[in-house]
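#struct-help
A.M.: can someone run this one for me? Single chain, 464 residues.
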Amino acid sequence: MGDPILGVGVISVSVGVFARGGAVSRKKRKSRPQEQKQHPVKTGRKTLLNYLFAFAFGAVVASSVVLLVTQGSTRDTFLSSTAKTSPGVAGHRTVAQLIALPDPELEKVDIVEMNIAVAREIPGLENLDYDKYRRIVDGWTDQFRAWLPVAEVNFHKSPQKWRNDINFFRLGLLAAYLTRECGIRYVEKYSQDQKEGKNSKYKEPGALLLHGLLDTRRGTCANMPVLHVAIGRRLGWPVSLAAIGPHYVCRYDDGRVHYNIEVTYTGPGFVSDSDEDYMKNDHLPPRAKTSGSDFRSLSAREMLGVFVSARARYYRDTNRFDKADCDYASARVLYPNHRYAYVESIRAFLWRGNQLFNRNETGHPSDLAGYLASVYLRSPRRNRTAVNSTQFEPSPVNRHGPMAEINRINAMNRANMHLCAPGVPQPIMPGVLPPPTYGPQPPTPDVLNPRHPYQTPLPGQPSR
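D.P.: on it. Structure tokens below:
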């Protein structure tokens, strides 16, 4: 408002001065006609000054009109750009601005905003609109919330099917809703890669970050659980992401019980395996849990680290190792105990060393390889002279082929994706046809499920 008022003021003052000057000049011409004739030089000077003043007045009027016409759109553009770059504006914060927030404030940030902020820093995705994706998630949440009171009638008819826990039923209902009503599925391309035992290359950032899932309704274990967590938190549930090796799940933990919801499964029913199930089927050691890496609800800062490491994976698979190394370094600061991000970051880390140092120079990967060989390939007796054994204990050398680890990870993903069998029945949703009758059948009565010796067997809980 200040600029238009200033323009109007300039015009008013200019008009007043000009009018006053003209009136005085006319008055002087009437009262002193002889003086003008006696001093032609002075008269010429006054005439020139009048022309100059008129020119200046015209310039002021023209610039003021242009200002009044254009200032509205210019000001709106300025405010819009300022809102997008100012720190503290929800939905427009950068990753650096989110990292700078104290932990209590970061915990209040929408997980959708954090994920979109990471994606928006990828070249070509600068114009991703957080508000657009927020409205999609909000709309699905409102529709699902409206279904809950009617659907919960099914729980009270047979609560034992859902561990006698209404919260477990609601988690399953959300999984069914996103699959059957929203059409969420696993990306067919990566599903086929895993069937064939191939190491997938994620050359589309949308396969790893939330915007791709919301745009195409196709995702992976990197973004599908993010959607579950985003909706669950909008409903007030104590849910978060949890890492399980190279995999992620939606984890419910109210301090009394916890559930792992396998969101990549999109068949009849839904899967909720225990920590012990995952450790056994995915061949994970106890250290995966005791180290603070896997099988626990992540904080907001750690989830931000997961998103940054997903972006690093995209950069790595598109051979942009410079950006990948920077992102992996940031991700490890945000989530230092993440075992999988540590493993994934090694290739980019070695690339950096190859760029900075000459071969056989301290810091080059060849020098690092020699150091590791001297530490880990010696006998335990000689090893004490190379490394202080009180600092860390060398692990056994992995002597299998270079593809063994990749094959192991692919096998884990195949076990966790949507081809696995349902763990529990699918909650019946009002107005939605029930699932087909074919598929896994409930176990024989009075026969314990050998995969679950530590919990009461559930109806319809075959092996994954």
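A.M.: thanks! Residues 111-360+403-416 form one domain.
D.P.: also worth noting: The first helix runs from residue 2 to 31.
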